[in-house]
UniProtKB/TrEMBL annotation:
Residues 12-194 form the Transglycosylase SLT domain. This is Transglycosylase SLT domain-containing protein. It comes from Microbulbifer okhotskensis. Keywords: Signal. Pfam families: SLT_4. It comes from the Bacteria. The keyword Transmembrane helix does not apply. Residues 1-26 form the signal peptide.
Length: 208
């Protein structure tokens, strides 16, 4: 009886650990409110703020881009293509994680930022990547750091593609970029109302 109770207790403990692990990587419950996101994901504001301070990329813009790319799903991948309309085929690219970064672009980031251990499914690394990419866009494409519309076009098309204006014939992409821009503005308005408390919490947590 004693052994059985110990096994049950161990099984319960493992279940709790598994559930906790799942919660740690699950997307936020309210994707439309950046204050709610940062209240739920306790470390995310501090990590986003670090990226903002490092790269000069506004938090609201980086978060709006991440929302568009993955809806904050840590292991997001592009949907598979369809063969004959219904047979699952290969994925169109190796984009992965929170930022939906291509493997080649991620490796460029790792080298440039000296962050060789960075992972695309880690929020801190992903938000830092977006900050780095937007900073590069600002320099190479002459885009303002708070211009979410053009920053997203550069994020999607690449810096060379943006400078060649490859997006001009892509009405669907320009529509998506407008959505990202609107979300960035909404996130910024929300952040203005709660950032003081988030900064206090970041400072408090930094003591420990």
């Amino acid at each position: 009886m004693h052994k059985k109770n110990k096994k049950c207790g161990l099984a319960l403990l493992l279940s709790v650990v598994a559930l906790s692990s799942g919660c740690a990587t699950s997307p936020p419950n309210n994707l439309d409110n950046i204050c709610a996101i940062f209240q739920e994901k306790k470390k995310w504001y501090g990590e986003a703020k670090d990226a903002e301070d490092k790269w000069g990329a506004p938090i609201a813009v980086m978060m709006a881009i991440m929302h568009q790319e993955s809806r904050f799903v840590h292991d997001a991948k592009p949907p598979r293509t369809k063969i004959l309309g219904f047979i699952p085929g290969p994925r169109p690219s190796d984009a992965y994680g929170y930022p939906q970064a291509l493997g080649s672009t991620w490796r460029s980031y790792q080298r440039s930022a000296f962050n060789y251990g960075a992972d695309r499914d880690d929020f801190r690394d992903a938000i830092d990547f977006i900050g780095w990419y937007n900073n590069t866009s600002a320099r190479q494409c002459q885009i303002r750091s708070n211009d979410a519309y053009n920053l997203y076009l550069a994020y999607h098309e690449g810096h060379g593609g943006f400078n060649r204006r490859t997006f001009k014939s892509k009405a669907w992409l320009k529509k998506v970029s407008h959505k990202v821009s609107a979300r960035a503005q909404k996130y910024q308005q929300q952040l203005n109302s709660c950032e003081k408390s988030l900064k206090r919490r970041k400072k408090f947590l930094g003591i420990f």
